[in-house]
Design goal:
mainly alpha; 291 residues; MetI-like fold
Amino acid sequence: MTSFRASVHGWLLLLPAAVLLAAFTHYPAVATLWHSFFSTPKGNRPARFIGLDQYQTMIEDPIFWIALKNNMVFAAATIPLSIVLAIVMALWVNEKILGRGLLRLAFFTPTMLPMIAVANIWLFFYTPDYGLLDQFRSLFGLPAWNWLGSRDTALWCLIVVTVWKEAGFFMIFYLAALQQISPDLAEAAAIEGTPRWTYFRRVTFPLLMPTTLFVLINAVINAFRLVDHVVVMTRGGPDNTTSLLLFYIYEIGFKFWDLGYAAALTMVLLFVLGLVACFQFFYLDRKIHYQ
């Protein structure tokens, strides 16, 4: 009887979280999958079952493949750059240096800014002729450049903005992890004359791997859910060069009001994130040694 009461008590404690998870995660996912098999209702014409037609349309849609490719490039660039920069900043501000508190604040400040504000700040940097980058280039006699209007640089401009905003956020987790490492390890390595790079590679970085997995999961999610910066800075241009998958879903769903096709696109996004999550939890997690 006591074990039964303990079991019921435990399930009751889990009930609020389970209800929220089902209402805001599982039900929307299942509903989106269901709607992807139906056409979009318009006016007096109700939705009708069309099976896999939305997915067939997606396969034949060149803009979808462009958006998917752009998102893959975006993720492949922002994820490692953000993580590496976060580790470097965390190692720096973990040292006993003058003005360490101000330096930590400076690194973390971009994270506290709203995404729309960040996009507008960087719009000023990228403005042709008058922007900060072109003002700097003019000192060397270089001509103005339309950073967000060029196919060669537009996506990379978004990548720079994302890394600038996210690295400081990830730095906080690495800084907390570094402060949990016993200083005795560094003292023993110093006595043995171990080079700093060797100590980092053999001791510090392996101990940071649990934090790296957590940061990696967040970085992947952030790479596939970015839409604010695209809306403010480029609106997917030029010529869909900066059209990312979630932005394309937003356009299909709320600009062209094709909810059925947007649901099918959303399922592809969930499938991609699911594959990444399986790789992270079933492969990377086994390579990590927790303290």
